[in-house]
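Predict the 3D structure for this chain.
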Amino acid sequence: MRSPLQFLQLITLSLALVVAPQASADNKAMIDGNTALALERLREHLVGAEELLDSAVGVLVFPDVVKMGFGEGGQYGEGALLVEREPVAYYATAGSKFGLQLGSQYKAEVILFMTEESLQQFRSTQGWKVGMHGNVQLVEPDGFDRNKVTEPMVGFIFSDEGLRNHLTLEGSKITRIAR
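Done. Predicted structure below.
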């Protein structure tokens, strides 16, 4: 049998888990501003990023993906889907692994839809999961060659230190949110 104190602690923890994500959710203006900043940082980290961004039919940006949970935990971030450089919808990403080394202040993820078909398939799938509904070819920091793009979706993971390698988007679930 639980003591009244244990019961109160359980109720408090449950409320915190329900209320905290809502209280910290970003609004449209914050997501849009952070999205622009993340794309500016991507351009700084990758020669040729502007050309690549211009050739994409859609750009999904999660400007600040954060570690959440206890133990191994997971990750969560909110972002925007841009079409013709304008936000058209907002999404959340959630995954089971964070994979960012100590010392980094943030992690951003960007997915470029290089074909109209890949963008439409993404937009029409609820709970889109990387690896299940589509493959995203990650660009590694050692260089990018446009001629070596083999997938209709190209992804970037970067932090304040630049493009990151040995990370994955595999298993990340992306869900449309109301903002």
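Residues 44 and 162 are 8 Å apart (CA to CA).
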